[in-house]
Amino acid sequence: MGAEPLPGRVVALQANYCLVDLDGPSALGPDGRLLCTRRTRLDKSGLQVCVGDRVTVASVDWRARRGAVVGLEPRHNLLQRPAVANVSRVVVVVALAEPGLDPLQLTRFLITAEATGQPVQVVLSKADLLPAAAVEAWCRRLEGWGYATLAVSTCTGAGLAALRSDLEQPGIAVLCGPSGVGKSSLLNALAPALDLRVAAVSGRLRRGRHTTRHVELFPLAPGALVADSPGFNTPALPGDPQTLAAAFPELLARLRASPCRFANCRHQGDPGCAMGGTWDRHGIYGRCLEEVEALAGARCRGGQGRQEEGGMRRRGDRLEPLLDPQLRRSSRSTRRQALEGELSSPDRED
What we know:
Layout: E1 6-14, E2 17-22, E3 33-38, H1 40-44, E4 54-61, E5 66-72, E6 78-79, E7 84-85, E8 89-95, H2 103-114, E9 120-125, H3 132-144, E10 148-151, H4 160-167, E11 171-176, H5 183-190, E12 216-221, E13 224-228, H6 249-257, H7 282-296, E14 307-308, E15 312-315, E16 318-321, H8 332-344
Parallel strand pairs: 3-5, 8-9, 8-11, 9-10, 11-13
Antiparallel strand pairs: 1-2, 1-4, 2-3, 4-5, 6-7, 12-13, 14-15, 15-16
């Protein structure tokens, strides 16, 4: 039984237990790992322990390799899904084929990754299934979105050396993406000793099968950890429509160079918009924005900035103009509903 709490990092969550790698040598040797419970007071305080968290462990039973997490250190950041704390970079993996690449689905993953504030990279797996020209076209397109893009293949080995170099940088790198894109296969190719479970895509639906059941950190180099995560197909969008633009690097870069006239511009044909409609993800941004606004519904947006008189909003120590709602272009769904209402209204003439 140890008197002083021991520092470590959570590398996996299994049911109600945490796998914790202790810092430095211990009674278990240089690479001590304990199966730990969480103290009740930690649960009652509302603190959720996630993979990647720095914790302190007490009540250690060295023979049984058990302990209890008694403290949680402050996080630098948190990737919401998969839930990983203290992330250094996010690698979004999507397949070029089997299953095919869906730009909208990829965008939703990128929006989630951008929320960490850390570097985001796109990896295009199964590059051997498309012609080289098509692979290059996808790389150029995604680089136009503002992302470093790497095409890889576990069959030919293309791109694996460059990916290994990126993942061996100190910190925690998270591999995330839809099911069946080959995240675990990539890790097996980079570190064969891991021998992670993999499976082929569904033969009839051509969709990925869930083979990874939980998030776990694996060491690739000294100080470098990589998280393999379960695949999922529909990442959630942020709840605040005003924050959506910041998750589109190409939009953010243009707005920094030439801001829109109004602070609450939706970048969907609004008067004074600096973006226009010619950028690649204009339609995708519009679909995401409509969904976010629909989820927000009629909630009061007072927390996004206090509304001042005269069509101004205070943000920090300055006032910004707001677009008059009467000047905003109505959405296509609103115009369609109005037209249907006119066509279905009964004739009132005698």
